[in-house]
Design brief:
This protein is α/β, with parallel strands linked by helices. Helices cover 30% and strands 21% of the residues. It has a single domain, classed as NagB/RpiA/CoA transferase-like (Rossmann fold, 3-Layer(aba) Sandwich). The strands form 3 sheets. A 7-stranded mixed β-sheet has the order 6-3-2-1-7-10-11, with helices on both faces. It has a two-stranded antiparallel ribbon with strand order 4-5. Helix 3 packs parallel to helix 4. One of its GO terms (molecular function) is ATP binding.
Length: 199
């Protein structure tokens, strides 16, 4: 944890405020026990399956947990068993700061990206267009009651979600209860989520 994470002095700089929240929330996530993480994953799985059934969604985007995020492994397994199409994000190879989504199954090959996060290989035969995505489940570092999401700071999901605002795709954050704050400091590029499931 950097010194900026330990700062207690109030600041008017939104960038500093956001970074301080990131540090605090990531530290809280890391303090969760394996049992708490497992319980959260099970709770999220139940809620997500109910939402998918309610919307009769067949193609959903998920993520692979990293650095204390809620695990999606159980949810992915249940979706495979139900015959749903599961997609994972990959950093766009040509358009910096954007995401592409690829079908993910038991035989998919994964490779670490520049952030050491596993992502699907670049196989265009498995590319899923944004029009096909019915629900995008996103990770997050912090959230508030208004549905605002604070990510890791790269802006990848915000850029991706901006292009979905006029489509029927819904965006759903997955979070631990400890990641909620009263109100996030918002930047003009932030895209609020349609819903947040709390484990």
């Amino acid at each position: 944890m950097t010194d900026s994470c330990l700062a207690t002095k109030p600041t008017r700089n939104i960038t500093q405020q956001r970074q301080q929240i990131r540090c605090q929330m990531r530290a809280k996530r890391q303090q969760l026990s394996a049992e708490q993480q497992q319980q959260a994953a099970e709770n999220i799985c139940r809620q997500a399956l109910a939402l998918i059934a309610q919307r009769n969604a067949k193609t959903v985007a998920l993520y692979l947990a990293f650095n204390g995020e809620i695990s999606t492994a159980l949810l992915i397994e249940k979706l495979w068993q139900a015959g749903k199409t599961v997609c994972l994000p990959r950093l766009h190879p040509f358009t910096a700061g954007h995401l592409l989504f690829f079908r993910y199954d038991r035989h998919s090959l994964l490779q670490p990206n520049q952030f050491a996060i596993p992502e699907p290989e670049l196989d265009l035969t498995r590319l899923v267009t944004k029009n096909e995505l019915e629900i995008i489940f996103t990770p997050l570092v912090a959230f508030d009651r208004q549905g605002n999401r604070l990510g890791m700071g790269g802006g990848f999901y915000d850029r991706t979600l901006q292009h979905l605002q006029r489509r029927n795709t819904i965006t759903v954050g997955l979070a631990h209860q400890c990641q909620q704050v009263e109100q996030l400091p918002i930047e003009h590029w932030d895209v609020p989520l349609n819903q947040i499931l709390v484990g």
